[in-house]
Amino acid sequence: MQTPSIVLIIDDEPTALEALKALLEPQGYRLECATDGVEGMRMACDLQPDVILLDVMMPGMDGLEVCRRLRADPQLAEVPVVMVTALDDQASRLQGIEAGADDFISKPYNKPELRARVRTITRLNRHRRLHIEHERFSWMLQQAQDGYLLLSEDDTITYANPRAHLYLGYSTEEGLLKNKFLEVAKRQYRLYPGEAWESWPEPAELPRYLVEPETPTAQAFWLRVDLSPSGDAHTFGRFIQLCDVTEQITTQRDMRTFHSIVEHKLRTPLGHMQKFLDLIQGRIAKHQFDDLANLAQNANEGARLLANELHEVFQYISTPALAQPGEGFHLLKFRTRVDTLCADLEINKANISIPSSLLKERLSMTQSALDLILWEVLENAKKFHPQHDPKIDVTVALCDDRSMSVQTTVRLQIQDDGIALSPKQLLWAWMPYIQGEKFLTGQVPGMGLGLPLVRTLVWQTGGIIRLANRTDHTGLVVEIILPTVV
Fold this sequence. Notes:
4 domains; five-stranded parallel sheet; single chain; Beta-Lactamase; 18 strands; Rossmann fold; about 475 residues; six-stranded antiparallel sheet
């Protein structure tokens, strides 16, 4: 609903104020009154009225002086001023024009003329203000660091600021307008998560992202797509914002990745060293020196292993890319990596199935990235299993997923026999600090950043990840589809 126009009346005569109020109140204006020039100036500053009806003949500060001060004030200089006067001579009107008056109304009032003039002036001033606001808003959009687009009801782009042109791969001179938004976005980006985009352009519970996957020469690029929640799309269109969240996503990923790598890389060698140093200490206490050399050799081996692991950690810090030129992960080593991670996590029941025909393939990510993905998935399977003793089934197979643009993809499927999740829990499982269960572990709500990190790693390498309940047994299925190195 449009707010009523504000009319400020400045007049020292109560009868004149009441007469003007009686004439204008039926027209739906918001009427405000001041009885002298000083009060009128103060109210004008506070109200920013659409028009001021200003009596000329007032004691103290007269109407001409008030008008001059209004025109000298940058905030009030453009407010229309109508001088109300009983004087009808040419000299008085000339003084009013020189003071900055926009129009004149003579006493006694011609009622239809007074209403018509106020109506016309307030309408013109409202349009002037809207034009100024439009110009300011347009300037802000032109300078904005986020992309902004206006879409018609059928998803056609009708407006795009310069940043939106840049994000969607167009110069401002090229024909971005009149294209369908999703068609343009799909040419350059992957739409994640798929379930959030299925309802486009309706609102979704999950945030929507456009992701340009990581390549051997460039980091992944992330745009969050926010849809304006208000407005009549049929009449005004849909207003969307494209926000670059690459730094935020990358920072979260790198912090969690570094934490996880340090945790599972250093745990084994440190335990190895501690065990043998305890044995050495016990032998010395009992004066059993015969096998000290062997124990010292084993402890030394643990220290060497620790040094190697630290070297890998420092190497990761200096080269955090997930897809590197000429590299990738050989599936020939997949079974060994899963066995090693299960042993580190003390998971005793794990079946791994991989066809021999796939052993020559390479996934388009580093071993560190794949290790981290497997570690997080397996660790969650153990953490949230009722007895913390899951049975894991891991299968690898070729995949024909039409949503993937690459020629060859591989599906990794990891099943456990733990808990099942509700539909809402499945939907939100990949969001930070969402926990699938609370009472079995006694932990506070919040799964942390593990699964969101897995999702980020998979998306950044151009893959797809899905989570579902098992249909043949209680437990979860994590399905990861990854492109291979050509």
